[in-house]
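Model: Ready when you are.
Researcher: Fold this.
Model:
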Amino acid sequence: MKFTRSEIKRILPIARRRIGNTIVAWVQKLFANRRLVKDVFGDKRDKRVLICYLPEAFDGRVPKSHSNFTECLAAAKAFRSLGYSVDCASRDNDRIDYTPYSVVYGITSTAYARSFASGTEPLRIFYSVGAHTFLNFKVTAERNLAYFAEHGSRALSSCHYVPGNGMNYYNAYLSDAVICLGDASVAAQFEQEDKRPGRYHSLPAFYFDVRTPSQKKDFDHCRKNLLWFGSSGLIHKGLDIAIDFALKHPDYTLHICGASRGEKEFWKHYAPLADNAPNIVQHGFVDIESQEFASILDECAILINPSLSESGAVAVLNVLACGLLYPVYSRETGLAIAEYGSEVPTVDYATFEKAILSAATLPADELLEKCRRLNSHVRKNYSLDLYEERLRTTIEKILKNKNIR
């Protein structure tokens, strides 16, 4: 295909702009992945800590789209209060000089894992935001096998596996201390696999206090409205169970919030079913500070959370703290709330179906009372202020016992 001189003159500036934009985007991504923010609070002290997490947490207003920004900021504040100058590296940063740091703190990431091969020996505190790696891998693989047996296809992108560097499987074992997000049952998973005492510290999660719900709710009106509230790992978090229930029980309405459409294997099977079901409402990502979120909480009576493993389930806490909903959830959710809801012992369709149907037939006054008590319990015991206080106390305790290996 030949172009005339005039056509070339017209196309060339467009091509240059597109090539330039592509190069700029690539460079921005490269440097974002290798970002290192020094002295995030402007303090310069002798003791220095490197936090391997999210430098974006220090760019201004901390978003509530995910709890991890707040968790990163809370850790930085804790170390600052303990006399440290705080640096923060992006998770994919593979060009860090670890020499200046007496402490390295972080989540599963390249930046944290590479510290073990750095030739330095800072105190390492691993912040675990999931179940024990071996348990997590086992249950997510087993659930995918069950999914394959039922549907004849796999949805591997909807399960949870440890990403990136193979060293990530050993972070908990090799670190000096591990902070396990979630209630005591989560830390117990680690302790069962590692008998060294004093290394694992339980840290209950928190909720974002975006609204205080009215203490009145007509459960007779909304008892058949269900809510699934989550993000990625749709099989791991049981969205298939929730959709299957709605398809089998068309007199119930299922509201789905936050489910990623990027998990194409999952949606290849479920999109034709869910998109054409009048009793399945797909909201996409919902801003928890929006009126839409408030309206969904007021409309729904039951929260469904058939998760295979969690670490405190901030998404669940947000719903229970900001609305009056009765939870039907797996014990692997990592929350000690069995006296207020239905804790399901096995993550499978039949067990959850039975629990949901049973919950939906409870007397309205009983549902209301249980939800009031649960809401009060969550707001009292899982506030952000409490989380920050507990995190600071835990880090201080670890630093005082820093010879523990």
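Researcher: Now this one.
Model:
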Amino acid sequence: MTLYTEEEIRVNERLSIRNGNFATVGISIVSNFSALYVLSALHANSQEVALLNALPALMAIIATWIGAVWMSSLASKKNFCVRASVVARAFYFILAFIPFVIHGAILTLVVVLLIALMNFPQSFATLSWQSLIGDLIPEQRRARFFGLRNRLTTIVGMLSTLIPGIILQLFPVTSIPPYQAFFTIAFLASIFEIYYLILHTERQANRPKRRLAFVLTPGMFLAFFRKSVYRKFLIGALLFNLGWQMAWPLFNIYQIKDAGATAIWVSLFTVANQLSQILTFTLWGKISTRLGNSITFGIACFGMAVSPVLTVLSTNLVYLVVLNLLTGMFVGGVTMLQFNHLLQVTSKAQRTAYIAHFNILLGLVGFIAPEIGVLFLSLFHMDGAMGIASVVRAAGGFFFIFVVANVGRKAKAALT
């Protein structure tokens, strides 16, 4: 293993924080305002909103499968990450430029497809960055480093959501140029993001170029289901995520079309949700230590299960901000505990393969769920569709508390 000096580690940490801050500016602008852009400015229909949520997940599935193979043979993770990031961030400029050359109804579909395609190189960039930073930052420094980095990027993310929301409020909701301007700002921020990524110090071991060391074949993919503890976790997690993600396009449609949310309100929804997540991460860790990860995750799932049915009770925008503030703490619990649980039920030797396996299946759910949500919207209207999403989320929570937690207790008993 190639070792880094103390000075090189400190420099890499500073560069990674700067890289993360500039990356967050672009990601926050594009991800948080895409739905408002296609719904209000481009007049997207429900199916196009569903595709906006579904197609990026499909791109992530393909990229994760390929990346799990490709990453095992890389000589330089940094160079690969730089190239993938350059391609991904070029889509910001394309999104800003495309309204000059394409007009009318086709523009909406093109924008949705561009956002989906952007997630292909972005998934490569994320995979390679995670692997790279694991090499650059020693294990004993990671908790402090990631704690600081996540706090700073979260603050930057909130500002990058709130400020554009305030400025977009000054323009008509159907105006396209303001979005083009912010996509351009996202692209300019990405130049600094990639610059600081290039400056990272990566030492490459002197070894011959390897062939692909890991191939995720269909047979290997199916073999992962044989581990009972992982299989039970997988069933519960995918069930909950089905209910979670089928409501994503419904929330966008309800908040923007039904409640009439403008850019500033969309910003406030996001900031309120993120703020409560930050404030409750430590609390979820304490509850998990006391009750166990499975039961705590189930509680967080139940908390998120009430969000869809509570949302459709009112179109009052202040009410929706408060609701996002309250439900955000359960989102924080789910985000943290789901990954912790995945690590808990996988062996260290095969952890990377299991993570790829889980992410592929999660991406498949992410591709299917929004389409199911929009289908239920057409069949049962908004109240019925949101109610079904709540029931499915609650079923996932029930599964974790009464099935997965029980499996965990039996496994511990068998070891004693």
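Researcher: Key takeaway?
Model: Residues 1-202 form a domain with the Growth Hormone; Chain: A; fold (CATH 1.20.1250.20).
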